[in-house]
Amino acid sequence: MTYFRYILREFIPPFVFSLSLIIFLFVMNLIFQMLGRIAGKGLALGTIIEFFFLNLAWMVALAVPMAVLVGTLTAYGRLSADGEITALKSTGAGQWRLMTPAIAVALGVAALLIIFNDRLLPQMNHRSRQLQSDIRRKKPTMVLEPGVFLSDIPGYVLIAREVNSQTSELYDVVVYQESDPEYATTITAKQGVLRYDESIESFEFLLRDGQIDRASRRRAWCLPCWGRSWASG
């Protein structure tokens, strides 16, 4: 037991440090990717915190095995560099006895990860997708940035020069319809509103002061555009 506790004390500090560092790096990467898209969009602080908390599940699932590897290499590497492995062997401790702490930790972590990946991880990932879907429905312009093409809506590509995330209003809008195999349709409008209609479970565009251009192999023609354009998504 003396060998077990000694080696275990060498393993725990680098394991905890590397686990914290890896999760921190994952969190910072997620913050740099997503914080600019969801902050300042009228979302409640609790919703933003819940979003990052739910994404901790897949971070833990990836970080723990890497932390175990770093902890094991650090512990046994330090013991070997200081000659303590040789000293322990000279006292009669065999190779398997020295490996017992690492094997015990590996089995314990593996058992916990199996439970975590089987029960908690799917639920948190599912809740995270539901939360993102709810955010898109309540704030459909949240993922739309000025001057950047948005292709999240099936069959359509949308771009707007100006976006008001609070009111979901768009200015200088261009919509490309890709779902029609015979015609290439382009809708342009000076102003529009993008919202989600729960009754028909679709995104709805309200476009004003614009036109619809349709081009085919035979001819191209133009129609004035007033009113609405629907797209399922």
Sum this structure up briefly:
By secondary structure, this protein is α+β, with helices and mostly antiparallel strands.
Mind explaining what this structure looks like?
With 233 residues, this protein is an alpha+beta fold. It has two domains: 2-138; 156-232. The chain contains five helices and five strands, in the order αααααβββββ. Mean pLDDT is 77; it is low at 229-233.
Task: Please give a handful of descriptors for the protein shown.
5-stranded antiparallel sheet; 5 strands; 53% helix; disordered C terminus; 2 domains; 5 helices; single chain; alpha+beta; 233 residues
Distance between the termini: 61 Å
From the alpha carbons, calculate the radius of gyration and give it in angstroms: 28 Å
Overall domain count = 2
Beta-strand content estimate:
25-35%
Query: SSE order in H/E notation?
Result: HHHHHEEEEE
What topology, given as strand order, has the largest sheet? 1-2-3-4-5
User: How confident is the prediction overall: mean pLDDT?
Assistant: 77
| Large-scale geometry | rod-shaped
Approximate helicity band: 40-55%
Category from helices, strands and their pairing: alpha+beta
Secondary structure tally, helices = 5
Number of strands: 5
- Residue stretches low in confidence (pLDDT < 50, at least 5 long) are 229-233
What composes the largest sheet? 5 strands, antiparallel
